[in-house]
Amino acid sequence: MSEPISTLPYKAKSTQALLHEWPTRLTTSTSAGRPISDQGFTDLLCFAHLRWNFVYQRPQHLLSRAASQCRVWYIEEPIWHDTLFLDVRKVAENLTVVVPHLPRGIDEQSAIRLQRQLINQLIEQQAITDFITWYYTPMALPFTDHLKPRLVLYDCMDELSAFLGASSQLIEQEQRLLKKADVVFTGGYSLYEAKKERHSTVYAFPSCIDYNHFCHPSASASQADSNDPADQVAIAHPRIGYSGVIDERLDLSLLRELANRRPDWQFVLLGPVVKIDPATLPAGPNLHYLGMKDYRELPAYFGNWQVAMMPFAINESTRYISPTKTPEYLAAGLPVVSTPIRDVVRTYGNWSRVTIADTVSAFESGISASLHRSVGSDESELNQFLRAQSWDQTWKQMHYILNEQLAPVLLQE
């Protein structure tokens, strides 16, 4: 098979060569080796479009690690309420979730003014002085563009403007954020290619994994059954599973046709239904929607599936996605059948346990073959590759880049 894509962040050729020296630079570079507080900031203000207690994904993985080196304030989108207040909730050491509550019925400009007021109060009350800002959503810019952070980071994990129900202002606000940002990270290679001409300092950090969380030695049938979650244990085999948000990005027609063609297969879907009417979901005796699960529970579900599926639609909303579940399924020992999502094809398409299918018939054939496929000759190489896709390593690389970006700022002080 072809050589797998580097696990290191991707940028221009000269920078990529530098980052290939990462282990050496980490241990010898004075800027990378000092505690983050010595680099000029003690706090990180993150502005996010995702709730912290939603599906556990990129923001939670990265900012939980950042909290080991600075105070992290994860500021969510507002909730409409009867009164104005700020809900400040500590969820872990150095990690606090902040939720603005705004009065119902106010206009857009009032919402911006009140959020700005609440953010200012947070900064004053918590004595936040030396901080960086970390944006997941450009829509936070109107009420934060007055802040004076040491550094502005845009971690672009999705092309939000392509999603169902996206604000008409997203494109304009992202352009403003790109002008303001000192550095841009992207959640995949396709996103990197889309942003690299719009900013001078862009790095690709595709989906990573907690390998040991998902990888368990092969268990006997009786052991597997004993670990099977209560809401899944009565479902027959073989089981073909999906875990993630259930929204407009899924090809529901594909799922419906597969279930109709193969009544002997059980399709198990984990995750919340978002932005689409649950009544539009395919229904049948072999379709099982088990709802959102805690991240800690996922290995027990995955360990009792036979095949993992990624039945994404091929459209604008999926053009730039880099599904976090791909490496997680593989670490759990599952074969994966996916529609031709570009970042999945590019990063994982050549491994023997991954099948790319662009039609219903091809998807059905891929699942059938996966159910009977023996262990591939590249299994050891695949597991080595997956171990390198570490969120710990990704955070170290991000931390290094942030310190490098901050160095000139500190020299001027």
Describe the structure.
The chain has 413 residues and is α/β, with parallel strands linked by helices. The chain has 2 domains: 13-208 and 390-411, Rossmann fold (3-Layer(aba) Sandwich); 211-388, 3-Layer(aba) Sandwich (Rossmann fold), CATH 3.40.50.2000. Helices cover 36% and strands 17% of the residues. The protein has 16 helices and 15 strands. It has helices at 13-19, 22-28, 30-33, 58-66, 108-125, 170-180, 189-195, 211-214, 221-227, 252-261, 298-302, 325-331, 342-348, 360-372, 379-388, 391-411, and strands at residues 43-47, 71-75, 79-81, 85-92, 95-103, 131-135, 152-156, 183-186, 202-204, 239-243, 266-270, 287-291, 307-310, 336-338, 354-356. Helix 4 packs across helix 16 (391-411) and helix 10 crosses helix 14 (360-372). The N and C termini lie far apart (51 Å). Mean pLDDT is 88; it is low at 1-37.
How would you concisely characterize the structure shown here?
The chain has helices spanning 13-19, 22-28, 30-33, 58-66, 108-125, 170-180, 189-195, 211-214, 221-227, 252-261, 298-302, 325-331, 342-348, 360-372, 379-388, 391-411; strands spanning 43-47, 71-75, 79-81, 85-92, 95-103, 131-135, 152-156, 183-186, 202-204, 239-243, 266-270, 287-291, 307-310, 336-338, 354-356. The chain is an alpha/beta fold and 413 residues long. Helix 12 (325-331) links the parallel strand 13 (307-310) and strand 14 (336-338).
